[in-house]
Amino acid sequence: MATATGADAQKSTGQAPVVLDLGKHRRKQIKKLREGSGKLMDDINGAIEELRTAGTLSASSQPVIVIVRQKSRNKMKKLFPLL
To answer: Which pLDDT score, from 0 to 100, does residue 37 have?
Structure first.
């Protein structure tokens, strides 16, 4: 579910940032992630730990970028904007 990339940024900063794309999630889950808790935070910690054990990510690497998109609330609003 999470993907890690960063070859272009490695040239400019010396260390490649880790980019985790978690996809679309509910507003409540994103709010908990901003607070530093919840299922998404567990997913991020698990992905980082997985990269460290595989040797892709060093133990002292710092930059992490997380991308999460909010699911749309109501699809009926898109179809009928005057409702």
So the answer is: 92
* Structural domain count of the chain: 1
pLDDT tens digits, one per residue of 65-79: 788 887 776 666 666
Q: Which two tokens stand for residue 35?
A: 């607070």
Domain of 34?
A: 7-71
Q: Which two tokens stand for residue 69?
A: 């998109």
**Distance from C-alpha of 12 to C-alpha of 8, rounded to nearest angstrom:** 8
Q: Where are the alpha helices (DSSP H) in 1-83?
A: 7-13, 27-35, 39-54, 75-79
Domain membership flag for residue 83: no
- Asked if 4 and 51 count as a contact pair (C-beta separation under 8 A), the reply is yes
Q: What are 34's two structure tokens?
A: 């901003």
